[in-house]
Design a protein that fits this description.
Jelly Rolls; alpha+beta; single chain; 3-stranded antiparallel sheet
């Protein structure tokens, strides 16, 4: 059984983030927030078809492909930074924390698209409205979780925080699978919610200081079943590093 996402109207986004620590936007609301058409966002989707395998999975799986690039969003401008490793402390990622993970960068055609800069710029604006205006150190991850091993794990580390200020999880594509339920929990209380993102460009926004999150494993309904996501994190003060 799939539980429908609790979509928030764009005008209620900040109130929802402040009161609950997370918000879910429909694809059209995401397009409106970024000031683009849904077709502009869909034009980014082919970039998920050429992702190299994740060579760092410590559970021995072959189910994850990804690319990773970093940017600084400041005063309405988005600037790429020299390619760098992805690093998290073990306090936030017990499985893969403490490792310098060098993933291939995102394709130049994706990050040069106008829809890309507008999308990330909109996330920076949301973050500044929530936390106060400042430069935002942005990490973007393209993921494809497939069912090569019979099961794919979107969050092999389990329920977690990312050690940043704001996390954005976009569903980009979902084909031939079951599972993949999103779960959000209060970091210091019993409250939580579960739902399944099914529409391309639907978005889960998280105040990372207040909630933890996970996505349940996926299983195949057809050959080549997969789940594509874009995960963007925004952090004040600098990138995480060893």
């Amino acid at each position: 059984m799939n539980f429908s996402p609790p979509f928030t109207a764009p005008e209620g986004l900040q109130e929802q983030l402040r009161s609950r620590g997370y918000a879910v936007l429909s694809p059209q609301s995401v397009a409106d927030l970024a000031g683009v058409q849904l077709a502009d966002l869909d034009a980014l989707r082919p970039g998920w078809n050429e992702l190299p395998p994740d060579a760092y999975l410590k559970d021995g799986g072959r189910y994850r492909r990804r690319r990773h690039s970093c940017f600084v969003a400041d005063a309405g401008a988005l600037s790429p930074v020299p390619h760098r490793a992805h690093w998290q402390p073990v306090e936030y990622n017990a499985l893969h924390g403490g490792m310098q993970r060098w993933f291939e960068p995102m394709d130049a055609g994706t990050v040069s698209a106008q829809a890309w800069s507008k999308l990330i710029g909109a996330l920076a604006t949301v973050s500044s409205d929530l936390k106060g205006a400042r430069p935002w150190f942005v990490e973007a991850h393209q993921f494809r979780i497939d069912t090569t091993d019979g099961i794919g794990r979107p969050t092999p580390e389990g329920a977690h925080r990312d050690g940043v200020d704001v996390v954005a999880v976009f569903l980009v594509e979902r084909e031939g699978i079951k599972g993949g339920e999103t779960r959000v929990f209060e970091s210091d209380g019993p409250g939580g919610q579960r739902f399944t993102l099914t529409e391309p460009w639907s978005l889960l926004l998280l105040d990372d200081e207040r909630v933890i999150h996970e996505t349940t494993p996926i299983q195949p309904l057809e050959p080549s079943g997969h789940r594509d996501t874009l995960v963007v994190t925004l952090r004040a003060g600098g990138f995480q590093g060893a």
